[in-house]
Amino acid sequence: MSSNYGEFEAIIGLEIHCQLNTKTKLFGREPNNFGAEPNANIGFVDTGQPGALPVINEEAVKKAVRFGLAVGGKIREISYFDRKSYFYPDCPFNYQITQFYKPIIDGGSITCDVDGEQMHFTIEHTHMENDSGKLVHFPDFTGVDFNRSGAPLIEIVSDPCIRSPRQASAYASAIRSILLYMNCSDCNMQEGHLRMDANISVRLKGEKELRPKAEIKNMNSFHNMELAIEAEIQSQISFYRKNPDKRIKTGTYRFDLEKQKTILMRAKETANDYRYFPEPDLPPLVLEPSFIKEIKESLPELPVAKKERFIHTLGLSKYFADLLVDDKLLCDYFEEGQKICKNPKAYCNWLVVEFAARANEINKHIKELQIPPKHVAELVNLIESGRITGKMAKEIADLMCKNPNLSPEAIASSDERFKPMNDTSALELIIEKIVTDNPESIADYKDGKDKAFQFLVGQVMQKTKGTASPPLVREILLKKIGE
Amino acid sequence: MSKFNSEDLKALEKLARLKLDINREVALTENIQKILGYMELLNEIDTHDTLPLTHVIKGMKAPLGKDEVSEHLPVEKFLKGAPARVGGFLKVPVVIEDKEDV
Amino acid sequence: MFTLSATDIVKKFKAKEISAVEITAAFLDRAEKENLGSLLSVLRTRAMKRAKDLDEKFLSGKSVGALAAVPVIIKDNIMIDGEICTCGSRFLENYTATYDATVIKDLENEDAIIIAKSNMDEFAMGSSTATSAFKRCDNPWNTDYTPGGSSGGSCAAVAAGLAPISLGSDTGGSVRQPAAFCGIYGFKPTYGRVSRYGLVAFASSLDQIGPFARNIDDLALINEVIAKPCQKDSTSIQTPAEKTSKTLSGSIKGLKIGSPTDMLEGLHPDILSAYNAFINTCKELGAEIVNISLPHNKYSVPVYYILAPAEASTNLARFDGIRYTKRSSNAKSLAEVYELSRSEGFGNEVVQRILLGTYVLSAGFQDAYYRKAQKVRAKICEDFEIAFKTCDVIAFPTTPFPAFKHGSITDPVAMYKQDIFTISANMAGLPALSIPSGFTKEGLPIGIQVQGAQMEDGKVLNVAKAFESKTNYHTMRPSEKGVSL
Q1: Taking CB atoms and an 8 Å limit, are C334 and B92 in contact across chains?
Q2: Do A44 and B89 touch (CB under 8 A)?
Q3: DSSP per-residue codes, A387-424
Q4: The model's pTM
């Protein structure tokens, strides 16, 4: 998808709703998990029982603050909640408790890679609010399920600084990564943990004023979001090319995946009057500087910092660093094992290439193999120490996949095939013969040609059918050459 | 500000999800006119440098609740008095309108 | 028995002179026969069970609570798990509460026996209990007159001896005004002092649950039981409250009582006399009278009738025909479920206030009305801060007029102006008590109100304790013509 719109440019703002992974709801201490039977996990506050009152969830506040710190936003020490009035069956009070006037986080920014280019995006603000319940549509009625009602949300509102669907996707992806690594949310897209609304307008390049915008609501996949935004941009550009003096009507749209176009849901003139006013049941949310400081000091490592560390400290390639960090489960797995592994690069390779491939073959994620990370690390350590060869390690890896609770050490020591040829005297004889049989290579090596040495090592490995320990071979070979 | 009239009342009915018969509407329009007239009294006071007050106890802060489950409303209790239900669902007429069109 | 105070009942129970079952059965029988219209439901099964359990507990040697065996009546906008809670409305005629309000837990932890839910203005909106969807409530002193409202039922019941103590709720005077009309004590604690968890909200920043009683010791006792920090209410004051049943000295020597003389115009002449007598009695008791001014008090009524309906319009939005209210049988679409259910379920006063509240919050009007009212509220609070620099408590009449005849006030503004003296305490979150202080020539009770600074609830109650030592208005009972035995 190219972001070349000719004489036009696209102005895009994203509002991302993220469900926080707390144990209880934002304003009530009922369980915050759904997917259960309808209305199995409800309480008094989240079903709007008369007389029930909101009490703010401390953990939700901490997660919001963590996110704010991670994006470099300003944490408001005093923030306020407001009532937003509208009637809908999934809304137990027929008002939402949100932060309209003074949200908890101001500003912030994201730097991320967009198709190879580093780009910088700014966040207008982030606020806290409660989620609504769910409507389930049946042929002749609609069912209301309040399990999700009251779940804690943070809404992250970007500045209108995004200029293409790819940028939107990269921005949203980077936000998601931060939310994951800051342990704010499980960010499971299929479960709707992250929902995106986009505000889109276009204008002629160089034009100062903003033209009316269209709003696309409730997108829950990055791919669909790109398609939707692109469709809307094209639609607006097409309109303006035909009608240069007119302006589109502002409105709310949803994206129809089949038709691949945005469909108008409602024009903005008939928008609701939300009558925002301060929530009288909640005094100001006051955050002591010590509260914020404690969270700042225990902030988990940011994904960007993690990638940098993988590249510069552990020596991983950018490709592998990206691969690991973009999959938190894999990344956590990597870091767990990497603690005891001597060669991070090799370990990464074994994980991401060898074991991941084996998992892929049976349609699983590497974590589902149930192999403890330290076992993979041990395998790499065994190769490093010369105890086993690379070839042996591959076979051991296969066996580890079949028997996840067996350590590589256990496998290696119980199987004849994996005993490396460490019998030095026998090895010395073989090497002596190869040295004698290859005088030209010796001469080449002494001349400075390293390739010759590799050739000789290869010869030894062939003769030993790969069972000799490479470090040992090199050691003895050097000794023999030297003699 | 022009006098509160029946158009204004109808607009409010929509916002407040009410559908009143004409007699009620007439009586209410009259009453609200009177009450709003009485409110004019507030224009006597200069409040341009006064901050609006929401919370009357100075220094009151929102307490933060520990994130531990301590409340649960069993579904049967919840639905016991419900006007309509199907299984564990609360039942409402088919919703075809969008959230903000209802 | 029906003239026994709560403290006397506890004494007699503990002295084994009478059992909880006996007390409860007697009060239940009387409640079921009442014809004042003060009660909406009598909780016979629940009360008898608790009485039986209490007798067993006591006989087994376990300690019992501060309100042991005391019958209590609760306004029908406070949740009792498993019991119907109507808020005086047809909309909630069949609604069963799903949990206990904190105050109910507090009372039952002290072994009080809740015997009935009382009549009230619909959703606490009114000053006469006349907007109740169910029945009219009469003033036990003269059944042609209203008991006041919105907690008219709880108040009339105590005045008529149906229980020694009861709970009401006060948003703009709904506990104090009926108390004045019915000649008993009615107290509104400092905002946040008593938990609102389980009180159906009318105006969240103004509501407080408040007790009724016939003597100050009973009032101080029930106040102590319910004035506690609550973890489920974010507007609850988290510091422990005074133990008012133990800290009232009964002396007001040296106490500075502020008298806002500029507010005393246009009063009913008997009320003015009662006020002057009250002031004199306080002087005799050693108090010092200080002239003060509350210049913004005259704006309190318009401010209240903007702020309270605004908050109420959103607090009552949850009553929508969807989850727990009645649903209109004529509703076919979702829109009709809302519109028809709400229009059928709510009475006229409630509809009026919802519409007014919606108006003052709506786009284009919020600044001129809602925000303006919030600013004037700030000014009303400032008046009190200034006044309390020169005095300890403030005294003025609870109402400008005594109880009025049923149906005699039809103009909405005239009805709202009834609250001119009570609203300011809700505006500023102050503790305020109506003290029985005399009678009109027609024999209708008069109440004088004492207000204190925030958190000074004990100081306010103490004025009554002192006044009680010199007067006997609080001991007078309405003749039995209003209540059949």
Answers
A1: yes
A2: no
A3: SS-HHHHHHHHHHHHHSTTS-HHHHHHH-GGG--B--H
A4: 0.91
